[in-house]
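Q: Hi! First time doing this. I have a protein sequence and I read that you can turn it into a structure. Is that right? Here it is:
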Amino acid sequence: MRDGGGNEDVLAGVVVVAPDLERRWLWALCLAVLVVQVDTSVVNLAVRAIGVALRAPVATIKWVVAAYNLAYAALLLSGGTLADLLGRRRIALWGLGVFTAGCAVAGLAPTIGVLVTGRVISGVGAALILPATLALVRVLWQEPARRAHAIGVWAGMNGAAFVIGPPLGGFLVAVTGWRGIFLVTAPLALVAAWAVRSLPESQAPAGRHLDLAGQAFAIGALCAFTYAATAPTHAAVAILAGMAASLGFFIVERRAGAAAMVPFALLRQGALVNAMGVAAAMTFGMYGLLFLVPLAWQRFGILTVGEAGFALLPMSMIFVALSHKTGRWSARFGAKALIGSGMALIAMGLAVVSVSRVGAPLALTEGGLALTGLGMALATGPNLALAAGAVAPGRSGTASALANAARMVGATFGVAVAATVYGACGAGPLGFVGALRLGALVVAAGAVLALRA
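A: Yes, that's right. Below is the predicted 3D structure, encoded as structure tokens:
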């Protein structure tokens, strides 16, 4: 069998399998994805409790979220390469093991520094799990219709996590304290690993190489630019370091040719680059909102942590309820129109939430969150489809990985910048408004980019 890139794919096991076995395989992969994605969303509800318990200011506790996103974004592409080289099941299991270790470190952390270290470890695990499980879905389901169904179910776990995560996070923090969100996740990851063990192994090592130099420069650039966004007094030095690392990355990747971590030929596709920019702009605004809103609700005494988790449900439920319809709407109205409209709605939602600070009716905030959920539903799927469709079918997997990496880069900067603006204004209403309005401006720029693509 061959993978999407045309490489010989070695699959251990039978080609035709019973439907019951396929279902067990699929739910094993979905459980692995669900554990990782739920962990991403539950942590936002615990930020306030972590800050109080470990006596950490906003400028520090933002790294509980940002460090995870940073590790995930920086290693996502290499995670896919490792899965092809060493075996997708093996890398998925390694990822789940690393992720479990990170959760345990975070849950038992005596200081904020140890907690952030645990989050970095978990982010590394997530960067291995996500591409490996998706690659297994693509390989194990060989009949196109069944493969499309399996990928749809796998992708649906992201939406399910978006619904489950906030109320679960609020409940766990209220009942068990902030450590519970990590210590409950760890055994669930072990259950997922036990389930993934039953899958056949597959790999496609031909023509694949791990680009260590490119990976090192990419990590350096991303870390430097993230630090610049969070430390204004050292921004100039950090930006220079980031530019130097970016130049090194560019030189290494040009020399690597076909073995490059980021094939430059793909980046000459304007539609793909635009889709990556839109994805980054979207998550910049959304992840900043998801970090700040639960924190502000609790800090200003508007909602308890348990109430905050349930108050985020309207946004996530709208997203999940409408996401599966966007393929049909995209065919009718055009992907660009749908993405541009969705991004505009997200920007409007952020602007509405920004004015619903202390003293405003909670219904106003919920209205803004509903707008953001609707906008995400309209824009997310069509934008990823646009990224995959911008290149030849054999490179669609790489294009999708680049778009997802751009999403996580946007998320990293979104949390870092929002927390910096909020903290610089005394962690009060002024900072809340400023951070969300900045996010709205970035998302609005993404809407313009989508319509001009």
